[in-house]
What does this fold into?
Amino acid sequence: MQYRTLGNSGAVVSNYALGTMTFGAEATEEQSRAILDDYFAAGGNFIDTADVYSSGVSEEIIGRWLADRAEVRDRAVVATKGRFPMGQAPNDVGTSRRHLVRALDDSLRRLGVEQIDLYQLHAWDPITPLEETLRFLHDAVTSGKIAYYGFSNFLGWQLTKAVHVAKAHGWSAPVTLQPQYSLLVRDIESEVVPASLDAGIGLLPWSPLGGGWLSGKYKRDQPPAGATRLGENPKRGMEAWEARNADPRTWEVIAEVEETAGRHGVSPAQVALAWLADRPAVTSVILGARSTGQLADNLAAADLKLTAGETDRLTEVSRPRVGVYPYGPMAQEQRSRKLEGGR
It folds into this structure.
């Protein structure tokens, strides 16, 4: 395991984080505790959860585990999120001070901690004024309820606006952004990655295996079945089976991943994770595991070093499709400049 600073903060986290969306849903409490034990035994120190994961049960499982593990409790860097609905009333959702006050206190209680290391807004809120949200986060930092804050699923302009509004008011600055990012989903490289680099924001990619596609478990034109996420629900979310199976690019990327894995004698998942962990601005890649076996395989990516040629081939075959403007090659050239001048 390698260690990096948490975005532009002084806190240090492992370059692979443990995502806990499965806790209390796809993984029982016993399985979840075993996953936590193995993760920390491997040198990890960064746990990511959210209040909506299993309606608070994920946070509760982590809280009980922390209470029983005095030897690692002080090493753990705990991140959670608030914003999505935790009830049916109009104020049970969003990033208003009214909602976040309760959401943060509830997360502190479920986790059994006095301070949350990283508190994240789970998504942009188009209704609440940004100043209201950022002032709440600043107050939470100064009161000691959270150490740092960040965002999830923000667009580039939303991230940049938040950074500059906080700076203009002299409020605490965000340190991280949690986007979807993988060899199959690289669209954030057009705006979100440059905005993050400009602000010194650390990226915490979620779904680094593209919902399981990059693990090699799915085969072309063979609908998934059995105890996998798509086997249980082929129409599940952004990684739904039909659209990705019909896209030739999906299989071109997977073929390159599998070929690279074969050369190293490792799993395809390890190749996909190793590529992502070395991308610009990435602080820590969030691993989601149903079992200790899945976790062990994913964590082995920390020991995998891809060659420059392998990285280049993976980057080229997975290059996101863009139009002529504003992200095409000629449009990018318009925004570039040679130091010596001329074209």
The two ends are 44 Å apart (CA to CA). The first strand starts at residue 3 and ends at 5. Residues 261 and 278 are 17 Å apart (CA to CA).
